[in-house]
Design a protein that fits this description.
Length: about 425
């Protein structure tokens, strides 16, 4: 009981500290709270603080996060597992429960602030670039699947997760991995490679991409500029502003957003009861996404303050929990080279194809870059890229693409995963 309580406090308090330090330290802000949470989780999970798991217990898990109480009792009484395994199972159960709850609650919260009608009017050019990015992504995902399906176990799951990563970042990756019942180690390894390879791609986008792409793509022109609005820029500036969330007014707003998100999760859970058990999690994820989008069209919900920030806080909690479940020693005992190559193909292959399509359809350099960044690294990275490009007119279009990526990425990732599985 004490262990469970300490775990809960650790997982929910640490992200608050990371958010705080991100506000007071420019270095930590550049690294990002999600990345730091991921690193801390991996460190905590692999320094011997948690009970050691026997090989028999690991084999019994068969990719699951934890054994059910009945399975645990049966194997313990039979002498198959040790008391250390029992304690490890208890911890894993808590971690898995936290992961599931926070990601389900986070998805609607990330969508509530989306103003579909306004942003569609403001970013028609960016939406066309979004289509090109989606086509590019689908091409490399299918190519990678057929190249590596015989060398990567459950390549169809990996394909679905990679769709999520490059259509919305960590939130979509987390949602799709939950929907597809991906094992924690597979999730961690895929996410790790994404972060390593993605960091290289991000440096390129921040430095030499604009100069290189301008050699064969049109430069950003006035016809693509969005109507400047002081409110729009304030909206972007505040996307990572967590201040005031615990003030009296902010606290009440958070309770509203949390309550509506909880209601959406409950309704989605009820809907899932009418489908077969093996399709329930997929149904929940897609129902939550649909209801979250519908709720964003309701003015009362759309205007609730800090709902996006609350969702990102839960994503940080998720990152901390899932990374602490990663077993580094086990992760590198599998054939990881092919997975690394698959991720690299998706990252750089999608960029190359996207730029080629932009050349054919005469999409300008800056819109192409901001679309790639918004989908790959999520909306909080949009101002960073826009600043590097010295083009603030891209901010709203980047936010549009990034947040719409949160919405459609879940559908696309789950659909492609099951489509490839059925081939």
């Amino acid at each position: 009981m004490i262990t469970t309580l300490l775990l809960i406090v650790f997982y929910f308090l640490t992200p608050i500290l990371l958010i705080y330090f991100s506000r007071v330290s420019k270095i930590i802000k550049k690294i990002g709270a999600v990345v730091l949470a991921y690193a801390i989780g991996l460190f905590i999970g692999n320094i011997g603080l948690f009970p050691e798991k026997s090989e028999t217990y690991k084999n019994l898990l068969a990719g699951k996060a934890a054994l059910s109480p009945d399975q645990l009792l049966s194997h313990f009484e039979a002498g198959d597992i040790t008391s250390s395994d029992v304690m490890a199972n208890q911890i894993s159960s808590v971690q898995d429960l936290i992961m599931t709850i926070v990601i389900l609650l986070a998805i609607p919260l990330l969508l509530f602030s989306l103003d579909i009608k306004r942003w569609l009017k403001l970013a028609k050019g960016a939406l066309f670039s979004l289509v090109l990015a989606t086509v590019s992504l689908v091409i490399v995902i299918f190519t990678g699947y057929f190249l590596f399906r015989n060398s990567i176990p459950d390549a169809w799951q990996i394909s679905g997760m990679l769709v999520g990563i490059y259509s919305g970042g960590t939130p979509n990756l987390a949602a799709i991995s939950t929907a597809l019942n991906v094992s924690p180690n597979t999730f961690i390894l895929t996410h790790t490679y994404d972060m390593v390879i993605g960091a290289v791609a991000l440096i390129f986008l921040l430095t030499g991409a604009q100069r290189l792409f301008n050699l064969f793509l049109p430069k950003f022109s006035e016809k693509h500029s969005l109507a400047k609005s002081e409110n729009n820029y304030n909206e972007e500036d505040n996307i990572e502003d967590y201040s005031g969330m615990l003030a009296q007014k902010g606290y009440k707003e958070l309770l509203k957003a949390f309550g509506i998100s909880l209601l959406i999760v409950a309704i989605s859970g009820g809907i899932s009861l009418i489908v077969p058990e093996n399709a329930q999690m997929v149904t929940i994820i897609l129902s939550i996404t649909t209801l979250g989008l519908f709720a964003s069209t309701i003015k009362y919900v759309n205007r609730i303050g800090k709902s996006f920030q609350l969702g990102m806080y839960l994503i940080i909690v998720f990152s901390l929990a899932v990374s602490s479940m990663g077993d580094l020693s086990a992760m590198f005992q599998i054939d990881f080279l092919h997975l690394f190559l698959f991720v690299a193909l998706v990252v750089f292959g999608s960029i190359i194809i996207h730029v080629f399509l932009s050349y054919i359809f005469k999409v300008d350099t800056d819109s192409t870059i901001i679309t790639i960044a918004a989908l790959t690294y999520s909306p909080p990275f949009v101002p960073v890229i826009a600043s590097a490009l010295k083009n603030k007119d891209l901010i709203i279009s980047g936010l549009t693409v990034g947040i719409l990526g949160y919405a459609f990425g879940n559908y696309l990732g789950v659909f492609i995963a099951y489509f490839l599985k059925g081939l």
